[in-house]
Design goal:
Blueprint (H helix, E strand, L loop, with lengths): L10 E2 L3 E4 L1 H4 L8 E9 L13 E5 L11 E4 L3 E5 L2 E4 L9 E2 L20 H9 L13 E6 L3 E2 L10 E2 L2 H11 L4 E7 L3 H14 L2 E5 L10 H7 L3 E5 L3 E2 L5 E5 L2 E6 L3 H19 L11 E5 L3 E2 L5 E11 L2 E6 L8 H6 L2 E5 L5 E2 L4 E6 L2
Parallel strand pairs: 3-4, 9-12, 9-13, 10-11, 13-17, 15-20, 18-21
Antiparallel strand pairs: 1-8, 2-4, 2-5, 3-7, 6-7, 14-16, 16-17, 18-24, 19-23, 20-21, 20-22, 22-24
Length: 367
């Protein structure tokens, strides 16, 4: 709660002249009102002066309002400030360009609710109240591991049968953008002992573990089995979405564990749709509206699997008739070039097999 008024005193919102509106009559450029300048009041000083009839006080933005003044005429509405007089060219209204004591925040007001995200605005409000310390939820520590014998670090030269690890840098970039400093731990080969040791270490050091790859049903997909051996309580494994079906989520030592698919587009979709909401919840933040709150009409048809909800990469443009949604073809869970051409992600729900041209779809912007 607030312990002080904001503003703490009546003050001027403009550089100009503090006046009594009753003195200004019907001032206009063709019929200016002449007032005698009694004093100049600067910001940071006390206004130890009272305006008498026929007087004005020159005042700076933020300076305390003199006694007797009920309006401020901005400099641009005056002329001929000379010989101790000022000509008022505009009739002011009572209270014009005055910031009243407590008009923003009054003493005792609730200024920030529990769960409020501290942005620069909230930080400024706390500073204005002289509050140096507040209790906050700390940002979670998140470890990133990529698994797979086929992976090389993105700085390494490509060799036959190998691919560069794009998931690690992409995950790290997304987390950094959300204000979380990631613990990128590189690549772990498809070796049960190496993976077990890496999982144990990161679970000791972090609140959340993100593992990409090894969560499907291949002969060398060890991630799920090893995590279960370590005590993972599986909350769910495999979801009815495309891309991202093999997603694994569970709890281990009160830590959140996500087994993400290996394909990079699947990883990014799962990150936005599952990991990000979990991280926000851990920090006490609940979104005020659904992610897919925008609506547009399809410019081209698209066929999908009826049994899965699909996230479709699109190009969306705004017209006088609303948003137009163009589906990029082909779609694919490993197609980074396709994703880079998209500016939005459309949502096609379970139970829909064919999206017709002109059909309305929900979408969100890709930031």
């Amino acid at each position: 709660c607030s312990s002080e008024f904001v503003p703490a005193f009546d003050n001027s919102a403009m550089d100009g002249f503090a006046v009594r509106t009753g003195d200004c009559g019907s001032a206009s450029p063709g019929g200016p009102v002449v007032l005698r300048i009694k004093e100049t009041v600067r910001a940071g000083t006390l206004a130890n002066v009272e305006i008498e009839p026929g007087e004005a006080v020159k005042i700076m933005t933020g300076a305390p309002l003199p006694l007797g003044a009920d309006a401020v005429v901005m400099v641009e509405a005056t002329s001929s400030e000379e010989d101790g007089i000022v000509r008022i060219l505009q009739t002011p209204e009572i209270g014009e360009h005055i910031r009243r004591r407590g008009e923003d925040v009054r003493c005792g007001d609730l200024i920030l609710r529990e769960g409020t995200r501290i942005r620069p605005y909230e930080l400024a409000l706390l500073a204005a109240q002289g509050i140096a310390n507040v209790s906050v939820i700390r940002k979670p520590s998140v470890s990133l591991l990529a698994t797979g014998d086929e992976l090389l670090e993105f700085t390494e030269p490509l060799s036959p049968g190998k691919i560069r690890n794009s998931n690690g840098p992409a995950l790290a970039a997304a987390l950094s953008r959300w204000g979380i400093l990631p613990r990128y731990q590189g690549i772990v080969k498809d070796d049960r002992q190496s993976m077990r040791e890496a999982f144990q270490k990161e679970l000791n050091d972090s609140d959340v573990l993100l593992v990409s790859g090894g969560v499907s049903v291949g002969d060398f997909d060890y991630t799920k089995a090893l995590l279960e051996e370590l005590g993972l309580q599986v909350i769910f494994w495999r979801v009815a979405i495309k891309p991202g079906k093999p997603l694994l989520f569970g709890l281990l030592r009160n830590k959140l564990v996500f087994g993400l698919p290996g394909n990079p587009i699947s990883v990014m979709v799962c990150l936005e749709e599952f990991v990000r909401p979990a991280l926000e919840k851990m920090q006490g933040h609940t979104p005020r509206y659904p992610s897919y709150h925008l609506q547009g009409n399809l410019e081209n048809e698209y066929r999908k699997e009826e049994a899965r909800q699909q996230y479709i990469f699109c190009q969306v443009s705004e017209t006088s008739e609303g948003f137009r949604v163009h589906v990029i073809r082909p779609q694919g869970s490993a197609m980074l070039g396709m994703a880079c051409r998209a500016n939005a992600l459309a949502l096609a729900p379970v139970g829909v097999k064919f999206l017709e041209k002109g059909m309305g779809v929900a979408f969100r912007w890709l930031k």
